[in-house]
Amino acid sequence: MISVNGVSVVFGGFYLLDSVSFLINKKDRIGLTGRNGAGKSTMLKMLAGLQQPSEGSISMSSGVRIGYLPQTMLYKDGNTVRKEAEKAFSDLLDLREEVDRMNRQLAEREDYESDSYMRFLDRIHEKTEQLALRGEGNVNGEVEIILKGLGFTAEDMERKCEEFSGGWRMRIELAKILLAKPDIFLLDEPTNHLDIESISWLESFLQGYSGAVVLVSHDRAFLDNVTTRTIEISLGKVYDYKVPYTKFTELRKERVEQQWRAYQNQQKQIKDTEEFIERFRYKATKSVQVQSRIKQLEKLERIEVEEEDAARINIRFQPALRSGDIVLTGRNLCKSYGEKNVLREVDIDIKRGEKVAFVGKNGEGKSTLVKMIMNEIPYEGALKIGHHVNIGYFAQNQADMLDAQLTVLDTVDRVAVGEIRKKIRDILGAFLFSGEEVDKKVEVLSGGERTRLAMVRLLLEPYNLLILDEPTNHLDMRTKDILKEALRKFEGTVIIVSHDRDFLTGLADKVYEFAHHGIKEYLGGVSDFLAAKKVACFSEYERWKSRNARKAETEYAGDAPGKLKGKLSYEDRKQLNREIKKAEQRVETVENEIASLEEKIKGLEEKMASGVVGEEDYIHYNRLKKQLEESMEEWEKAHEAWEEIKGKKED
Predict the structure, then answer these.
(1) Residues of the domain holding 491
(2) pLDDT tens digit sequence for 349-376
(3) Long-range contacts of 245-254, Cβ-Cβ distance < 8 Å, separation of 24 or more
């Protein structure tokens, strides 16, 4: 469908992408991966036609429809959620208007026997069939199912879009793309603003989708469950693997090891050549050899190897005083914002050493309970922190609390004590601060960079209860793995608010689901929670599709030509004759196929009777027999359809 041909992207003389080429085929499921800043989002923009390459070209089949979801976008206000989502059907609504206009024109015509009239009738029928295929009568149902799958309630659908936060506005845009059913989805971090159930729903939707998908995501589980092909962008080049993400990481490791060996060999060759040049540069008898070596170096295509992402760095949270057995107890906890009740009569107990995940849809009270534990907001009920509990808190707005005038290095240097000071630069490197970046002031850092820096500070201070609210939002996979391993080794207690299944899997040993103003406890981790919750939305979507398919069969075409109730009009008779002719042709085509297959089978049977046959002949014979059986079944269906249509004419 899409061909990327020798594409380069140049910024100020620097090649972000350097002569890359690959194909995107129908039904491809591609995960686009690479380090932050490697060019993934740039590639998606070019595929969507929003950015042009500096060199090369991107071509696609005619009529290919693209659905593109960027990481950030501008929104227009004024519509309700439902009306905004219905914009996905703008082409369908235009088609409906066109059919209505043509039917009005038809009612005014009286040239029933003319060729022009028949051609016009054909056009109306063609457009009406397009409406039926697009499922015109199912618009409201589709809109509701998709919006519910993405977390919206029935009440939300009539609210104005501007009443929702940026994350929920992004969900509305995602709903519009899903409803439009493009030939190819281009999704840039689609799970960033979704809760754990909505991610699971979107995953199921994409798995069953008939078009192609290209997505950028730091959610390993999402990539593994949706994609079957991984394209890595590294140092301006692309590496194409026909496997999901986790398998890709294994193959990538082998490739990088080979590149590293080749790089080391080349570096030795370069060093030896440079030493030869330096030693004999001023000797006249060696001038020819020196010049030859200089030219060799100039022509040499240098091997580049990206610094190993999987570099093992052993990070541990700082040891702290042991807390009491009961870390946290809450009874009859309630919290409302005005008339909106968020939590009602909640009980919770957390013991020392437990690693607890808070999950559930956005707005159900996860961050609210965290703020209650931190005594940041007033509430009703009794909440008691255990003996010797020292809390390390990572809030979603933690980045705003850093001193803007300090450098990155100074920010962590002020809290680091003891042996860990020797590893400060290594830890900063693990969180994507390396080289001169450690000397940047906090005030010039992006929001994501500040978030990562706040996480590093937390690593370096001694706490025995860590409360982390969406800690992975701005972390790449390598950094998430480092943080996850550090938390696994942490001997204290952890409460994590997160929608990242891969991060929680193997880390959390207890899950609290927030829903309907309360919480429900699941023992056994996030995998057990997801297994218990797997049914709901997507199953409902599948049931809804089946119901509407059956309904469409029994209510074919509404008032369109072809609906046969009572006395047939002139137009209906014309249409019926066409359908009869088409059915006759289908029967005749299948009969010809059967005759051809029988002739081929007869020839092989004669050959087999003579005894001069090989294994390939037997395989071919069995294949023909199977095709004949299928053709006979097809003939029966075609003949029944033909008889049924003829019966309508006789009635």
Answers:
(1) 326-524
(2) 999 999 999 998 877 899 899 999 999 9
(3) 245/31, 245/33, 245/220, 246/220, 248/31, 248/33, 249/310, 253/310
